[in-house]
Specification:
Structural class: mainly alpha
Strand content: under 5%
Number of domains: 1
Order of helices and strands: HHHHHHHHHHHHH
Number of strands: 0
Shape: globular
Distance between the termini: 27 Å
Bound molecules: fe (ii) ion
Largest sheet: none
Length: about 270
């Protein structure tokens, strides 16, 4: 997929209606993706030799290929966001440093538990984007929307892989749910702090305080922080939950067709 042209044309406030706060939140999230996805790949690849199920091994290869591609595309977008003045490089360095430290402290199983938890976050975001026109509209510019829809589609396709790998290496329910609770805290805390820093560094905002206040007031009504989003996220905390309990096969097939046409090959990843 060709993103270079629309990335070059991206305006500073690219979210729908030039929404300042939503643009900053999306820029912050995109900034965390390349290093985050590298961490996911390392976590899963680190236990590849312990997986005996050939179907799961094939899923792992697909997962690694998709996440590496996402990281590269987000890097292109993040470079443009940096040009526009977003602190994407600072966030990227912070995330790289944080994972560097954590991977030296945590076991392989804990790394996988964090990967599986964050994959539920991306799967939730993906399901919202793929099912809710309002969520797609909130992303704004058509190019950004296409990129995120494509990313969302692949996140839905491989949403169970890290979870299955975690289980395959003997990961238990107590650790899985505890790590999800930590992930919830970290995600809310870090996204809020980074969002505040990103906005505080934006000189243009200072000239439009009213516009910013209105934009911040609109944020809680966003489809990404809706009750439905919270409900999907919360399911992961339930003992016995499996990502494929939410059956998104039909959704994936429809979007593959919409984005790649009838010739678009369906992924080899297992979705059931
Ligand atoms: Fe991804
Ligand atoms: Fe993913």
């Amino acid at each position: 997929m060709e993103f270079d042209r629309w990335v070059a044309d991206l305006p500073k406030y690219f979210a729908a209606d030039g929404d300042i706060a939503m643009s900053h939140v999306l820029a912050v999230l995109s900034s965390t993706f390349p290093e985050g996805e590298k961490f996911f790949v390392r976590s899963v690849a680190a236990v590849r030799d312990q997986i005996t199920d050939p179907a799961l091994l094939a899923d792992v290869e697909g997962f690694i290929g998709q996440e590496e591609m996402h990281g590269r595309e987000h890097q292109v977008l993040n470079d443009r966001l940096a040009e526009l003045g977003y602190p994407t490089r600072g966030i990227d360095s912070y995330v790289r440093g944080l994972y560097w430290v954590r991977e030296r402290i945590q076991t392989k199983k804990v790394n996988l538990a964090f990967t599986a938890a964050l994959e539920h976050y991306t799967a939730t975001l993906a399901e919202l984007l793929l099912t809710d026109e309002a969520a797609r509209q909130a992303v704004g510019k058509a190019g950004a929307r296409d990129m995120l829809t494509w990313h969302a589609l692949e996140e839905s396709e491989h949403k169970a892989v890290a979870y299955d790998v975690y289980k395959a290496v003997g990961g238990g329910e107590v650790m899985r749910i505890f790590v999800m609770l930590l992930t919830d805290l970290l995600f809310i805390f870090e996204t809020s702090i980074m969002g505040v820093i990103s906005m505080a560094m934006d000189r243009e905002i200072r000239r439009h305080p009213l516009k910013l206040a209105r934009s911040l007031a609109r944020l809680p009504q966003s489809p990404f922080v809706s009750l439905r989003a919270m409900r999907i996220l919360a399911q992961y905390h339930r003992p016995g939950f499996h990502p494929n309990d939410r059956d998104t096969r039909q959704l994936i097939a429809e979007w593959r067709q919409a984005l790649f046409g009838p010739q678009g090959e369906l992924t080899s990843l297992r979705v059931s």
